């Protein structure tokens, strides 16, 4: 239904209504006719009062199209007749159906331009031009003041108004949460007349979304957000007899801050309940623990080295140590089969590299079989090791999903990814940089989201000069592959150095901390000696590097 503007009459002022007694719902027009928006009484220029009837002749077409009704209390909603009268909220009949009638006035408060009719089943229809209307209730208040409350619906506006003795400004957006931003934008000038604008939208997903969209319309600090923890909206609280919570929400409304910005004063709870982040697990080597202070949740540790230096051997030792310390570990070893990974863990437990032993199970003697079974039970059989059988699928989003599952579904607090380079390999140089950036950003976000500690292996670029990493060249952050994202987004970067060609030292790996966001301590952490008999990496004194092992205590100068 649409309404046209009367061509021959203009609104002059609000006047009392002789029919319903409203002090100001009656409107006087320039041709002398009156119309009361509280009770629908129509008084033509000749002074004879009648109720509006859409078929009646001799009155402006716009008036005739509006629906009349009676002011009455809304029992179920606990809204009084006085409140309904103040707001011109009526109950009437529309095409044979009972409706609640909400008048929408022009932004200048001169006249009603639309009506929203609400059916008992909560459907509604609009009569007139809602687009030309201000906010619901805007005509009731002066255009400036200390505070205005904005609700998501008409009944909520009536509720808030009544709870404030119908004295303090409250308006509703006309089209619910979805159209909220547009409506507030349109009436921004009016709203900016108030020192404080309180958004009191529904406490549901749509309401919260609307709040995030609308709040930035206002200058910083002027917009506050009212929210109740127990009720969805003001009317629900009122119906439950908890109107006080509505008032508390308005007075306790917090200055809106965009998502992600926190006031330090609200962080106490987070600090005292942050035990998980403080808990640290240990590396198998004391020297490394001393400088890194262990491994923590939500940390991304990158282990890097040249080809064949021993990255996988190191992470296997770390995984074994974690499992034996009672932790649950996820292993994505993308360059080897799960069987090889499993045997690797058992080898460490057995102090014997069984992966090099090609004897079939049936040919092993009973004692060996028993020893291997025990090694299996202490490691894989504990149920705290999860392996990713990748079948060659190393696509980054696929891996991220598996890591998320390992964290959330399997309870892995430590996850090993060996190695990042394979995830982004096969791409030309330019694309590899970009792929590393994308993968690193996603991994970093995932670590933060899940709280896991991710231990990731990454390869190095060849260093400048003759000496490669295979000949023991020193590692550095600048040699990490891709752009600077690996160094930037890792909390800890460990470089492994070993001269695979030097007869004296080729079994000794130097572990260098290249980056340490936790404590800032960097430099050589320890030296690991590889025992070919046991296949184990254990800490050794640095003198092994020079071959001078005569001193009992390298730290003691005397
Ligand atoms: N400190 C060490 N001394 C001597 N040999 C070692 C040492 N660490 C590992 N190895 C041996 O070197 C070989 C390669 O080790 P590993 O596969 O762990 O290296 P990597 O750095 O992961 O290799 P890639 O660059 O191919 O990924 C293995 O046979 C391993 O047992």
TrEMBL record:
Q: Which InterPro entries match?
A: DNA_helicase_DnaB-like_C (IPR007694), Helic-prim_T7_N (IPR048774), Helic_Prim_T7 (IPR046394), P-loop_NTPase (IPR027417), Phage_T7_Gp4_N (IPR013237), TOPRIM_DnaG/twinkle (IPR034154), TOPRIM_dom (IPR006171), Twinkle-like (IPR027032)
Q: Where is the SF4 helicase domain?
A: 274-544
- Pfam families to which the protein is assigned, alphabetical: DnaB_C, Helic-prim_T7_N, Toprim_2, Zn_Ribbon_Prim
User: What is the designated name of this protein?
Assistant: Zinc-binding domain of primase-helicase/Toprim domain/DnaB-like helicase C terminal domain
């Amino acid at each position: 239904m649409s309404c046209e503007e009367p061509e021959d009459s203009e609104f002059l002022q609000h006047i009392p209504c002789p029919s319903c007694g409203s002090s100001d719902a009656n409107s006087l027009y320039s041709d002398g006719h009156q119309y009361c928006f509280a009770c629908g009484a129509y008084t033509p220029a000749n002074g004879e009062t009648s109720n509006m009837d859409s078929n009646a002749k001799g009155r402006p077409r716009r008036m005739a199209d509006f629906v009349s009704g009676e002011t009455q209390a809304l029992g179920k909603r606990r809204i009084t007749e006085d409140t309904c009268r103040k707001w011109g909220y009526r109950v009437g009949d529309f095409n044979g159906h009972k409706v609640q009638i909400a008048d929408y006035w022009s932004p200048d408060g001169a006249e009603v331009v639309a009506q929203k009719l609400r059916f008992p089943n909560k459907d509604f229809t609009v009569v007139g031009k809602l687009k030309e209307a201000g906010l619901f209730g805007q005509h009731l208040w002066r255009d400036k003041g200390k505070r205005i409350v904005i609700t998501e619906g008409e009944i909520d506006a009536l509720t808030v108004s009544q709870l404030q003795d119908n004295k303090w400004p409250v308006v509703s957006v006309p089209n619910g949460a979805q159209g909220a931003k547009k409506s507030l934008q349109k009436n921004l000038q009016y709203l900016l007349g108030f020192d404080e604008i309180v958004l009191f939208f529904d406490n549901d997903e749509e309401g919260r979304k609307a709040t995030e969209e609308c709040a930035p319309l206002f200058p910083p600090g002027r917009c506050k957000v009212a929210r109740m923890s127990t009720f969805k909206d003001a009317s629900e609280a009122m119906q439950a007899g908890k109107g006080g919570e509505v008032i508390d929400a308005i007075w306790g409304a917090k200055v809106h801050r965009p998502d992600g910005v926190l006031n330090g004063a609200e962080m106490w709870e987070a600090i005292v309940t942050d035990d998980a982040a403080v808990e640290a697990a240990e590396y198998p080597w004391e020297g490394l623990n001393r400088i890194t202070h262990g491994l923590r949740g939500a940390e991304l540790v990158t282990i890097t080295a040249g080809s064949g230096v021993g990255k996988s051997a190191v992470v296997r030792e770390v995984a074994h140590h974690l499992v034996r310390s009672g932790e649950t570990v996820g292993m994505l070893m993308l360059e080897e089969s799960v069987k090889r990974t499993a045997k690797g863990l058992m080898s460490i437990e057995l102090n014997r590299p069984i992966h090099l032993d090609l004897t079939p199970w049936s040919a092993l003697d009973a004692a060996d079989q028993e020893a291997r079974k025990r090694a299996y039970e202490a490691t894989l059989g504990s149920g705290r090791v999860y392996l990713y059988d990748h079948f060659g699928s190393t696509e980054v989003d696929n891996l991220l999903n598996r890591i998320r599952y390992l964290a959330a579904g399997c309870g892995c607090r430590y996850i090993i990814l060996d190695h990042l380079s394979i995830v982004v390999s096969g791409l030309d140089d330019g694309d590899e940089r970009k792929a590393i950036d994308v993968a690193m950003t996603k991994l970093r976000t995932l670590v933060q989201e899940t709280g896991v500690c991710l231990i990731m292996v990454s390869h190095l670029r060849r260093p400048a000069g003759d000496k490669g990493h295979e000949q023991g060249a020193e590692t550095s952050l600048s040699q990490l592959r891709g752009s600077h994202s690996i160094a930037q987004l890792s909390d800890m970067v460990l470089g492994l150095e070993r001269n695979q060609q030097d007869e004296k030292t080729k079994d000794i790996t130097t572990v260098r901390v290249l980056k340490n966001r936790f404590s800032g301590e960097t430099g050589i952490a320890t030296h690991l000696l590889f025992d070919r008999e046991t296949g184990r990496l254990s800490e050794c004194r640095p003198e092994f590097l020079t071959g001078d092992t005569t001193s009992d205590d390298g730290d003691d100068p005397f």
